[in-house]
Write a structure and sequence with these properties.
The chain is built from 14 helices and 2 strands, in the order αααααααααβαβαααα. It is an all-alpha fold. It folds into 2 domains: 136 residues, Orthogonal Bundle (Cytochrome Bc1 Complex, Chain D, domain 2), CATH 1.10.760; 155 residues, Cytochrome c-like domain (Cytochrome Bc1 Complex, Chain D, domain 2). The chain is globular, with a radius of gyration of 26 Å.
């Protein structure tokens, strides 16, 4: 009897093994599907992306994964998104960002938006020629992520989802610092803002209020000390075009020579003529990207306008157009300051600030 039971068990086991489906291991496949930038109003100029790193769906996805990955930092505590928060236009609401171990930076985190329209270096001082170069420097900065690229590669190589995503993005599971940089560049290029009220106004689908319209005229109007009644705020001198920046490095009169602490662009070029010059940032979403200036010294837009209205300082490298306003200021009255702030707020893009495509 026991023998029959044992024999029945053996037969049943063999039957179960025979019926069990063969397990086929999952293998990711390379995917070159192009990624199209999400443009809603066609108000931005034509974009000129680098030909050696075309946007693809899978590289953008990998870049997004890396952007939110805390393993890029020494103690796995911070990611790129820690200092570039979508809620604040991919900037940091703190004056200076906190890095690994509580280390503090010395410059305000720049907003990441419409980077595809920048072609003249990155960071406040332009020390990174390409966006892919910029992407790796915070990882290695002792005041930021404080990690080494070999350690990052080792950590990511031990995670299956990354091995698979590198296959989809690049064709093999090999993880290199170059591939990390190209993926991060792809994701940051994909971050686009062109659906503010002002964009809708340009597209003919929104109307500015009377105050916003007065502010618009002031913004684009040229400074004219001889005719105060028609003199503008001359903001477009630096914040030009529909991306509201000129991709240049300028000294906007924050300090005198004796007050210079940060030499800005000079640190990257070695040219004294670049002292205290900083990258002109876009004003898109400026309402939510404070504090303002390279050192975050101004908390509100009202303070920024007051600086240009009455606070421009003379120095050896200050922009000549700003220097010309020091004797009279911009001559803005209280209502004009309000109007200018109201116009700047029309550059807030709520679709961009809440776009799930930019979230983990």
């Amino acid at each position: 009897m026991y023998f029959k039971l044992f024999l029945s068990f053996i037969v049943l086991a063999i039957a179960l093994i025979a019926c069990k489906k063969e397990v086929i291991p999952y293998v990711a496949t390379y995917d070159e599907t192009p990624y199209e930038l999400q443009l809603m109003n066609n108000t931005l100029p034509p974009v000129n992306l680098p030909g050696d790193n075309p946007l693809t769906v899978q590289k953008v996805k990998l870049g997004k994964m890396l952007f939110f990955e805390t393993a890029l930092s020494l103690d796995n505590s911070i990611s790129c998104a820690s200092c570039h928060d979508q809620t604040f236009g991919f900037s940091d609401p703190n004056q200076f960002s906190e890095g690994v171990g509580g280390a503090m930076g010395t410059r305000q985190s720049m907003a990441i938006v419409n980077m595809a329209w920048n072609s003249n270096g990155f960071f406040w001082d332009g020390r990174a020629q390409l966006l892919r170069h910029q992407s790796l420097l915070p990882i290695q900065d002792p005041l930021e992520m404080k990690e080494s690229l070999p350690n990052v590669i080792q950590k990511l190589s031990g995670i299956e989802k990354y091995r698979n995503q590198f296959i989809r993005a690049f064709g093999t599971s090999e993880i290199t610092s170059e591939r990390i940089s190209l993926a991060l560049e792809n994701f940051m290029f994909s971050i686009v803002s062109d659906n503010s009220k002002y964009d809708q106004y340009l597209a003919g689908t929104a109307t500015l209020t009377e105050s916003e319209e007065r502010g618009r005229i002031l913004f684009f109007g040229e400074y004219n000390p001889f005719f105060p009644d028609i003199s503008g705020a001359d903001c477009a001198h630096c914040h030009a075009g529909n991306n509201f920046e000129n991709d240049l490095y300028m000294n906007n009169g924050l300090d005198t020579d004796a007050q210079f602490i940060d030499f800005g662009r000079e640190n990257a070029t070695g040219n004294v003529s670049d002292r205290a010059k900083f990258k002109i940032p876009t004003l898109r979403n400026i309402e939510v990207t404070g504090p303002y200036m390279h050192d975050g010294r101004f908390t509100t837009l009202e303070e920024v306008i007051e600086h240009y209205n009455n606070g421009v300082q003379n120095s050896s490298t200050v922009d000549p157009a700003l220097l010309g306003t020091t004797s009279t200021g911009l001559m803005l009255d209280a209502q004009e300051k309000i109007d200018l702030v109201n116009f700047l707020k029309t550059l807030t893009d709520y679709t961009f600030l809440n776009n799930p495509e930019y979230q983990p």
